[in-house]
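hey
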């Protein structure tokens, strides 16, 4: 299963069993700015996929209940944990692609430095828009999620900015006519 919508929806169901409309509302609040759905019908499609794969099941409710509520199966919880672990490798893969693309510009260090400058500015802009450390403001509806997201953003951008300084030094050595920005 490749769809980030399906994995995100499964995470919401693991967090709290819900029905489709509530899941669509929670999805929009929790993943705002990170994952988008085209319409609430996207949630119904994802629920169907998750059910077919045996990752969720419909809860048995009183016969008068109109809404179908879903909960995660043990298999769903296990596969979700595996998917989360796999995200480490996926993030590393994206970083390798970025580095390879920067390396493709190495024949023209000035152009590579210019691209690196733009990357650095994007990192700085992201950092300036991030909530303060320990803040309960930010993505998600649970304060813990907001705090975790804020800290992850702060730490990962700080690491990227340190990498930019390293890469700038390496590229500057290839283009001695440009003054070092470090």
């Amino acid at each position: 299963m490749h769809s980030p919508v399906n994995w995100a929806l499964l995470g919401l169901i693991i967090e709290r069993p819900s029905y489709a409309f509530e899941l669509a509302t929670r999805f929009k609040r929790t993943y705002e700015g990170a994952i988008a759905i085209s319409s609430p019908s996207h949630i119904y499609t994802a629920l169907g996929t998750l059910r077919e794969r045996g990752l969720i099941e419909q809860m048995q409710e009183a016969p008068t209940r109109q809404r179908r509520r879903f909960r995660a199966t043990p298999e769903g919880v296990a596969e979700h944990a595996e998917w989360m672990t796999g995200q480490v490798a996926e993030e590393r893969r994206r970083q390798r692609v970025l580095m390879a693309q920067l390396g493709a510009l190495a024949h023209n260090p000035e152009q590579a430095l210019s691209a690196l400058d733009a990357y650095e500015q994007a990192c700085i802009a992201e950092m300036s828009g991030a909530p303060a450390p320990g803040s309960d403001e930010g993505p998600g509806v649970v304060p813990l999620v907001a705090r975790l997201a804020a800290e992850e953003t702060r730490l990962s951008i700080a690491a990227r900015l340190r990498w930019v300084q390293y890469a700038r030094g390496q590229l500057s050595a290839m283009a001695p006519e440009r003054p070092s920005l470090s």
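The chain has a mean pLDDT of 86. The chain is about 65% helix and 5% strand.
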